[in-house]
Specification:
Layout (H helix, E strand, L loop, with lengths): L3 E7 L3 E8 L2 E9 L2 H5 L4 H18 L9 E5 L10 E3 L2 H9 L6 H15 L2 E5 L9 H4 L14 H14 L8 E7 L3 E7 L2 E5 L19 H8 L6 H8 L4 H6 L4 H9 L3 H20 L10 E6 L5 H11 L4 E6 L3 H13 L14
Parallel strand pairs: 1-4, 4-6, 7-10, 10-11
Antiparallel strand pairs: 1-2, 2-3, 5-6, 7-8, 8-9
Bound molecules: adenosine-5'-diphosphate and the ligand CCCC(=O)OP(=O)(O)O.
Length: about 350
């Protein structure tokens, strides 16, 4: 039976939207948002409404009526840590996504999905949100009990790509040891041990390589001194970590393609920043051999920046001694969400209730 599924996926530098008929993509669009465009929004709600409007315009353009939809699937945001799976968007989830101190575009996905689903009189669900937590006990111990490591990463895409790779080599995800690298607006590098992401850098405001719009690991003492210097507001400090950090801080743009194109032809500033990014990503990959006990079946590189062959070749050169490197440019997130929507509609899975999850 045919099911119409709307998929909504806001990222830090893009809004992706698609309509599927079952597992088949009918229409899709990726809207890229420049640093300049995003800097215009002062309030959270302004950007949420802007992104929602883009989804509605897309549906109009494609002549898809809300009453045609059978389910709306969205990327999940920074709610409390939860296990992998499909969750119904309900008041509990929306409440936590509104109140969360960690700001990220994925926090708006469930609300946009919920509003559109209500108008179409269907369910809205999320799947494998960015807070899927499968960390090992040892990985949680950060160095201070007040600040344990938390799991914030591209869970949906990392797992989707890992499963696609497993299928391709006729193995099960649960029997593999993989390092998955997502190179997007944020960068996450995860150690997948037999189907669980037992370690990963906290890809929002915690640790790991810098990214198009994030600073990654910084010298924390210096950050604290700057925060208390009186020179910056809390908001300004946070935006140095997320939004205006990384490539944006060095070069004024979150467009990694533009930077890569300049680096490739030897433009000095762009080359220096790109080489540092390659160095940091390669170091993070090497560090993830530890949770996998040095037995790595493959390294999978994905995300928008993975379209850049110059970049992925340079990373590969530095880590190829560990295991085979496979590139999955872009993401499998839209398809993974559609797949989960289809499973709900076919009664192959029942969406969990967020409020009743114990962790
Ligand atoms: N063809 C390409 N080559 C290199 N980089 C690209 C390409 N397409 C997109 N990118 C970069 O990928 C980054 C966004 O990755 P993506 O995974 O789409 O991000 P988001 O986190 O917003 O979902 C941007 O910096 C963008 O410039
Ligand atoms: C918050 C972790 C996921 C993330 O960084 O997503 P984007 O790269 O889409 O911003």
């Amino acid at each position: 039976m045919s099911h119409k599924i709307l998929v909504i996926n806001p990222g830090s530098t893009s809004t992706k939207v698609a309509v599927y008929d079952g597992e088949n993509e009918l229409y899709t669009q990726t809207l890229r948002h420049s640093t300049e465009e995003l800097n215009k929004f002062q309030e959270e709600d302004e950007q949420l409404n802007f992104r929602k409007q883009k989804v509605i315009e897309f549906l109009k353009e494609k002549s898809v009526a809300l009453s045609d939809l059978d389910i709306v699937m969205a990327r999940g945001g920074l709610s409390k840590p939860i296990e992998s799976g499909v969750y119904l968007v309900d008041e509990d989830l929306l409440h936590d996504l509104k109140e969360t101190p960690r700001k990220h575009a994925s926090n708006w996905a469930a609300k946009i999905a919920f509003d559109i689903a209500q108008e179409g009189n269907v369910q809205a669900c999320i799947a494998d949100p960015v807070v899927v937590d499968e960390l090992s006990d040892v990985a949680r111990i950060s160095g201070h009990p007040k600040f344990p490591k938390v799991s914030v990463f591209h869970a949906l895409n990392q797992k989707a790509v890992a499963r696609s790779y497993a299928k391709k080599i006729n193995k099960s995800y649960d029997e593999l040891r993989l390092i998955v690298v997502h190179l997007g607006g944020g960068i996450s590098v995860g150690a997948h041990l037999l189907g669980k992401v037992v370690d990963v850098n906290q890809a929002l405001d915690g640790s790991g390589p810098f990214s198009p719009e994030r600073s990654g690991s910084l010298p924390v003492g210096d950050v604290i001194r700057a925060a208390f210097s009186g020179a910056y507001t809390q908001e300004e400090m946070i935006s140095m970590l997320v939004g205006k950090g990384g490539m944006t801080a060095y070069l004024g743009t979150n467009d990694a393609k533009e930077i890569e194109d300049k680096a490739k032809v030897g433009e000095e500033e762009e080359l220096a920043v790109m080489e540092a990014l390659i160095y940091q990503v390669a170091k993070e990959i090497c560090s993830m051999t530890v949770p996998l006990e040095n037995k790595v079946d493959a390294i999978l590189i994905t995300g928008g920046m993975a379209y850049g062959k110059w970049l992925t070749d340079k990373i590969t050169e530095k880590v190829a001694h560990i295991a085979d490197v496979e590139i999955f440019p872009g993401e499998d997130e839209m398809w993974a969400l559609a797949l989960n929507g289809n499973r709900v509609l076919n009664n192959e899975t029942t969406p969990k209730r967020y409020g009743s999850t114990e962790f």
